Structure formats: structure tokens, C-alpha cells
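tool=predict chain=A
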Amino acid sequence: MFTEKNGLKHYRHCVDGAWLDGAKRIEVENPATGEILATVPAGGGAEAALAVEGASRAQPAWEALPPIRRADHLRRLAALVERDAEALARLVTMEQGKPIAEARGEVQGTALYLTYAAEEARRITGDILPSDEPDEQVWIQRTAHGVVLALTAWNYPLALTARKLGPALVTGNTVVVKPHEGTPLSALHIAALAIDAGLPKGVVNVVTGTGKALGEALVRHPRTALVTLTGSVRAGREVFAAAADGLKVLRLELGGKAPFIVAEDADLDRAVDAAIASRFENCGQICICNERMYVVDSVAERFMERFLDRVRRLKVGDPFDAVDVGPKFSAAELAKVEAMVEAAKQAGAEVLTGGHRLDDGRFARGYWYAPTVLTGVDHTMDVMRQEIFGPVVPVMRVASFDEALKLANDTRYGLSAYVFTRDIRRLMRLVRELDFGEIYVNRPGADAVHAHHAGYGDSGLGGEDGKYGIEGYLRKKTIYVNWA
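tool=predict ok
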């Protein structure tokens, strides 16, 4: 998987069951310290072709296995993830920056994605229909697409790999994973565990490189049948364009701008707990994060007093310690958040707490931003319209629940939303009136593996998780059987 020189690990691609090196390298950085952790190959068109063609050769035999046999492989892989849980958690923290407690949770989620997919093996079903003709039946079979390309984001590098790998493999597809170039180590370790679990060569391939040099070549390869991406709206549009000539099947899980509505009858303590967890977990770097808050006037003072007290007590620091918030992922991400807050301040927003980089003492290295709450904002500001993806939350006071719903829907995103109310009539209105694919009522955000995770508008196409997520990795074949 890697060689080591002067204490620095140099990783290789995993292609067709073998470890392949590359002359050009990409440095992988620890966002808490700015130190170089390792290097990985900077792959391009040649590596893309080797990976897709290896996956294509392996796919017919893999699909020919009974689904329950494919599930056995996934269970063995999940068991190895659990065996190596602490080492994997430490790796995630080093390359991504999240607190170690959250990284341990990500490892647990990784194993869960794999075992859930394995459980679905006996639910891959078809249909037998009566025909309009005598002595005839119509069979509808579900079959694999072929080679699946999985493009993963940097915020959950291990879990997102498994979220795509499990469903794709149990349905008979083979997979090429291209992790984000900033967090490739987790996916490469999954590839090593897949080999240890006995998966046939070519079934799981992991290649590293940038989106432009490697990702586009993978998308455009004629044998890539389905592309599943978790990433930004910009990345989604680029993949959409690159896939157009080949008419590839796409599943795009993109950005979000989740509203968080606090009605006058909300349980305020519970709402505060959820607002904290849903904004500051993983340094606010989650697509379903609480990105903008609407609090009804009659409870705004009480809510904000409790909320601000909790924000000010958040502990920021070394992610290997018992902290609440770690570093931002990269210098570019830190600069983006800083620029958005500065623009909001120039437009009239007031900083209630935070609003600046942390760069003194222990924060002199790495990419740190103080947990931040803004008020005095309006819907013309970028902080209310564009994804922040950091530890910053703007808060608007509204006159009524109806105003909050109207403002919540005033967005091009449609992934997740949060509503706190005890009025059942309001809850029933959400089905028709709140235009988001995922709504959390009186609770913080956390996807259930057996539910469905999908967005509307600029938040993407298709979806992940549960039986509907599994369905996306299958296509239907209709056979007319006449025995007259």
C-alpha cells in the first residue's frame, strides 16, 4: 500500500488487485498542524483507463455470484473495519481534522453502511407479470449497471467511501473510487482491507489524483456506467457536463443551505442542543448542517441567550483531545469562511461571538476559525444564500412561523431543514410546504442508514441510503417469455 522514507509514507494506487506507483505526487496535509502526513500518486488518464478496465474485466464474474455471496464479502470487510477501528479513526482525524470522538463515530458508520448493504442482498427482487398473450409471462429483472465510479468528498472520507461501496457491490457492480485529493488515505486503507477480506481483484479499485486530471478521465471513460458523487455544486456541474456525451447514469449529492426554524412553541432547550450539534459538528463541514436560523420574535431573546452561552463554551483545539471543534479542512476553506464573514460585516451584520481566525499560541499552525454567530442579517447576504461550510451561523428574527417557512424556501438548495414546534398542524404542513428532501423535526441532524438521503434543486440528483439508495445501483431488464 505504501513505502516509507524518512518517516513519510508514500502511498500507491490500488488497481486490479495490485499496488501501482506514480511519478508525480500529491502531498496530504494535517489541517491541525499544516504538516505533511504522506504523499499519494497524482494519477491521470492512464491510471483512469487501467482502473476502469480492470473493474470492467472483474464485473461479469462478480455479478454472477449470488447476492448473498457478495454480501459475505461485505460482512468480512465490515469486520476488518471494526477490527482496525482505532487506527482508522486516528487516520481520519489526521487527514481531515475532525475531533477523534467524531472520527470514531465515522468508523462505526462506515461498518454500518457495509453491513446494511449486506443485509439487503436477499431483497434484490424482480417481478413476474401476466402477459396479454397466451402462454407467455413478462419477467422484470434487476441487474447491475457495470462499473460504478465513486467520487467522494473530504468531509467524511471513510464513511462516504463505504456509503457508495456497499450498495454498489451488493448489487453486482464493480467500483472505482476516486477520493478527494486532500483526504485519500482512508479510501486507500479500505482498498487494503478489501484485499484482506478476499474480494476478487478488480472489484474494488482506488486511484488518487485531482478532479481535472483524473476525475474527468474516469467520468468520460466509455466503460464507466454510473457516476456517484458527493461534493460541491461546482463539482456536480462539472461531472454532469463531463458525463453528458456518454449519457452516464448520475447520482449527485451536492451542497446544502439548511434552514433551522424555531417556532414560539418550541422546546427551547432541545432546540439549542440541536442547533449546536447541527452547526458545529465537524467544524460545520457537513452538507446537512444548520446553515441559517429563523427564530420567532416571541422566543428569540430566551433562545439566543441560551444558544450564545453554549457557543461561547465550545472548546476548540487539538482534535486528539476532548474538544468540540477542530480545524477547518484547508487554507482555502478557511479563507472562504473568513471572506464570507467579512462581507457580511461590511453589509451590516453584527458579530455576537467569534468572527475571526484563531492564530495565536497553539493555533499558530493549522487552519482555525472561532465558532461564530451573526445577527442583523438579511436574505441578500451571501451568508444567508451560499453554503458556508464552517463554524459560522447567521440568525434572523422573524415575526411568525409562516414567515420562517417562506424564507426557508427562498433558496436554490433543497437538501435538509430543521423545524422545532409542538404543533401537529404545523408538522403536517411541512410535507407540502417545506421544499427539502430531508426534514428533521425536533431533533438534530443524523442520517439513518435505512432511510433515504436526497436533495432537491442545486442539492443534487438521485439519493443515497435505504432501499431507494440500493435501487439506484440497479437497472431493470424486461424479458418476454413465450412457451407456446
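Residues 2-254+459-480 form a domain with the Aldehyde Dehydrogenase; Chain A, domain 1 fold (CATH 3.40.605.10). DSSP finds 15 helices and 24 strands in the chain.
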